[in-house]
Amino acid sequence: MASPRLVGGEAKDAGRPMSSSMHDADHETASMLRRIGSALRTEIQPVLADPMLQSQASKAAVILERVSRELDLSHEHHAAQVRDVAALSRTLADVRPVGPAPRTAVALERLGSVDFRTGMSEIVAALYAEKNALGPAFTVHLDAVRATLRADLNRRLLVAQ
Amino acid sequence: MTTSTTMDMVEQRITGYLESRLPHAESLTLGPMQRNSVGWSHETFLFDARWLERGVPVSRALCVRRDPGQTLLRDHSDLSTQFRVLQALDGTPVRAPKPYWYEADPEVLGGPFIVMEKVQGVCPEPWSSSGRAYYRDAAERGVLPSDFVAALAELHTLDWREAGLSFLDPSSAGQGFALAEITRWRDLIEQSQRPPEPVLVDVIAWLEEHAPEERPGCLVHGAYRTGNLLIQDDRVTAVLDWELQSIGDPMFDVAYVLSDLNRQGSDLLSNLVPRDVFYREYEAASGITIDDEACHYYEVLYAMRTAAFWMSACGLYAQGASEDLRLARTRWSVDAVLDRAARLIGY
Fold it and tell me: B275 touching A, CB under 8 A?
């Protein structure tokens, strides 16, 4: 098997702290985006003559609605990610590999200090790369990692669907 | 510049190009031009060309397929390859448009293009309500479902070496089919420069671990479904969209047909074919036994490929290479397809 690589680039929002004033500002921004999206859909789109522009206005409205939902939920989702990563780290710390698995160890150490997607990508790649060294711990680790990823996917789907 | 001005210019340039390719043509004119597929992939222009050749009127229905640059597949689809494939298929039982010319010079039409036969038929969109009704009615008549299967079997039983398609064979570069596909779509993901996706890392590692044993390769279309087929009188007149083809496992196409990706909730495969009919008629016509385990594997591979498509699309927008908001919207489609991929591998 080829060594798994990370897919995509580095995320830029690693471990950002949140203040309550930022929460308020984000909710206000989300509310404005929702209103702009609504205006695009109900006031601007209907008066556009060009079907191509109508379609673009419709897509813009959808995008603004999703971005506003993402902003509204961002603090809640970020807090959940932090909780999930901490729980995952505790779970994985109790499962010993049968042999040396340095890449997995490093990825585990970094989990809390890099952004969620980067950290989780690193741990998944490390697990597959060191599958033999991990022995039975591979499955235990992967199951725990997948449970964390599933919880995150479910949160993302609240925005995407 | 308005759309009509652009179309006028395209018409003028195509007319000039055809005159250069048809030195005996006099008084060459083009009929009304229909433009399709703007934004996602190659653009197509459909029209009738009429001219006099030594005083005799000639008419030919033509299709120009142009690469506008920065399509969703980026450099993983190029028209010179499509042209070679269509040339190789010309004269074989595979139903494909007859190719005429490939033009690499972007000065002519703003990007490379091919000129090919405009095959008679319609191509209803299976995701539209009218398209779904069209295929549902055709399914009740029963002729088109069988022809859909027959056209796929023709592809899979083609002697591709004899046809001159060996250049599509990934094993000539020392790679198996499934791993070559993974490499292809991982390259596209990396080109897209999107944030890391841990589910995708997992899916790709799973795919690398579970690649099925190589079976005798065949010509694989890569997107065989309604919506990529021209139809007339309940017959498939041409298989379209030769962008994703390879030499590989026939189960790759079979999995696409069996998948619920392309049937919008219908019980009918590709909105058209009852499942039992597909199994029975495909195996009889091709002599190939359907391998459900391999099909499951390829469904996961399709999920990875679709994720790559959407990441490429929203990446094009994020990189400023496109102003089309349809591409921007696919940022959230990535999450939906990752959800699908995760479920397919067990979580």
Answer: no
